[in-house]
């Protein structure tokens, strides 16, 4: 069996607890290579939380007297004191990542991410999970300065990614739309570009009015206003640099007419570009 494990210290295991808001005790990867069967049976459970992610193959879990076979892309979260019965079989090619961690009772993050009901969650297949698990293992092995803080951030990031992807996969995030997400990335990549929303939708075979409606519901403003907000925020940053004339700032943010740019800037921020430059220069 391929085993890669990292421990906070040599006493860290399923019995470890911490008073910290989030604390990682140990983390590892199990992959059956020759061993026919591997099992864990803890009738009294663990003293901490255990998150198990199936990166490949499948694994079996006994919950409330019922045996579940979970495929890759699923995870199971055991809370402190919950009975743990799980079994890995070579013919099912399991590749499993796991982590034991402590967090406060009634953890707001777990509740916010809908990890409070049930134990089994479909979080999808994402390389980012593997990357985070591997980094957590390495951090536990190397124990570099500030490792506790780094581990806290990484376990929270792992939970956040899983929670977000679970919500998207289960359509719990009603306004989620991949085309809107693509548009946001493009707008931020080159906000100065003369985007025509009709051209954007036509090139992608989208319904213009439906896209406008979906974008507005998802983001809270129209695509045009979103682009303006990006440009005006960029303009504020550029105006703090005295090397740029106001007309140059206008061009860099997508406006050939400096007067129109100035009017739009004042409408957005309540002061003209000149006034903002004077104020920021005195700050």
UniProtKB/TrEMBL annotation:
PROSITE patterns: HTH_ARAC_FAMILY_1 (PS00041), HTH_ARAC_FAMILY_2 (PS01124)
Keywords: DNA-binding, Transcription, Transcription regulation
InterPro entries in the record: AraC-bd, Homeodomain-like_sf, HTH-like, HTH_AraC, HTH_AraC-typ_CS, Tscrpt_reg_AraC-type_HTH
Segments crossing the lipid bilayer: none
Annotated GO MF terms: DNA-binding transcription factor activity; sequence-specific DNA binding
Pfam families reported for this sequence: AraC_binding, HTH_18
Superkingdom, taxonomy of origin: Bacteria
Name of the protein: Transcriptional regulator
Organism: Anaerocolumna cellulosilytica
């Amino acid at each position: 069996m391929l085993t890669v494990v990292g421990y906070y210290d040599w006493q860290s295991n399923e019995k470890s607890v911490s008073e910290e808001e989030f604390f990682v005790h140990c983390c590892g990867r199990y992959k059956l290579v020759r061993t026919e069967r591997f099992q864990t049976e803890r009738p009294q459970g663990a003293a901490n939380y255990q998150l198990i992610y199936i990166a490949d193959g499948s694994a079996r879990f006994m919950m409330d007297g019922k045996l579940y076979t979970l495929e890759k892309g699923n995870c199971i979260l055991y809370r402190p004191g919950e009975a743990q019965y799980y079994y890995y079989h070579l013919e099912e090619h399991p590749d499993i990542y796991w982590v034991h961690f402590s967090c406060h009772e009634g953890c707001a993050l777990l509740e916010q991410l809908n990890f409070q009901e049930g134990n089994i969650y479909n979080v999808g297949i994402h390389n980012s999970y593997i990357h985070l698990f591997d980094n957590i293992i390495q951090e536990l092995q190397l124990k570099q300065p500030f490792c506790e803080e780094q581990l806290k951030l990484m376990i929270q990031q792992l939970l956040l990614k899983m929670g977000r992807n679970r919500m998207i996969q289960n359509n719990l995030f009603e306004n989620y739309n991949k085309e809107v997400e693509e548009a946001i990335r493009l707008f931020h990549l080159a906000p100065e570009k003369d985007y025509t929303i009709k051209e954007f939708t036509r090139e992608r075979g989208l319904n213009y009015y439906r896209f406008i409606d979906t974008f507005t519901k998802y983001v809270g403003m129209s695509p045009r206003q979103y682009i303006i907000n990006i440009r005006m925020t960029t303009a504020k940053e550029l105006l703090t640099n005295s090397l740029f004339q106001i007309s140059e700032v206008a061009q860099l943010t997508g406006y050939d007419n400096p007067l129109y740019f100035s009017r739009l800037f004042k409408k957005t921020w309540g002061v003209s570009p000149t006034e903002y430059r004077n104020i920021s220069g005195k700050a």
